[in-house]
Amino acid sequence: MRHGGDRNRFPVRGRGRAPMWTVITAAVLALAWMPSGSAAPAEPAESPRDAAARDRGVRPGAVQARIVGGTRTSTDQAPWMVALTDEFGSQFCGGTLVRPTKVVTAAHCTTEPGSTRPRSPEALRAVLGRTDLRTGQGVVAGVEKVWRPRAYSGFLQGADVAVLTLSAPVPQQPLPMVGAGDTEPYRTGTPGRIYGWGRTGEWAPPSKVLRSVEVPVLADAECAEPYENFDGSTMFCAGEAEVGQDACGGDSGGPFVVDGRLVGVISFGSGCARPGFPGVYTRLSAYAAEMAQHL
User: Fold this and answer.
1) Beta-bridge mates of residue 282
2) pTM of the predicted model, to two decimals?
3) What digits encode the pLDDT tens for the residues 13-22?
4) Known catalytic residue: 47?
5) Locate the Peptidase S1 domain: which residues (predicted)?
6) Is 251 noted as a catalytic residue in this protein?
7) What is the CATH number of the domain that holds 117?
């Protein structure tokens, strides 16, 4: 049994990428990844958790992340998938097209790294129809406006969702969103699919090609134990750590899709696919009514 003193023993990290490491609180770090093309930091010595995993017959590498344990997919199969980039074209988060001019992402993807200070909308770009980020395929839309819930004060406190208003409609097919108060998609064991261009391992570079993996919704207790701020009314957790399936750095803001509907947003986690530390997602049904005014 894990005791309370072990909670958040590993850094709790948002799953976007940013230029530098930034302290969120004295005890908790948010993961701010270096831009694409930068050298990854040196891998540390085997942690006690990796050693324990190895002793159980799980390779330490298997509990590192990929969009994690996933496979390549394409924007033909997920036309609503958005790569969120800065004005220089560096991808750092994901998002989901829900209307021709509206993208849902994580609130922490719309703030300066390591703070709640808003990024300028003019510094954001939404890229659609680009399976491989090394190409010039698809469309690039500017962002006119960003909405975040008033309650947002950092991803660990919840309300980690934002709506981007694009400067012009895009032709891609939007994804329907879950309704307010809907509980069915969040039942334990429900399979959902996540997408992203995030890192292919905890210490690996990001993927240049869109990836996807199916992960099950987990019981709230599996998140409440390792994450003391977990709130099951506004969050849910999912993942398959033992087989190395999870989201990772650069996947923040991306979708959790159940039965053809957007039901969650990739938010944060401690490392990637670590046993006992599942990925945490924003429960969109808790914010759907508030979001409707901005869609």
Assistant:
1) 235, 265
2) 0.79
3) 565 654 322 2
4) no
5) 67-295
6) no
7) 2.40.10.10
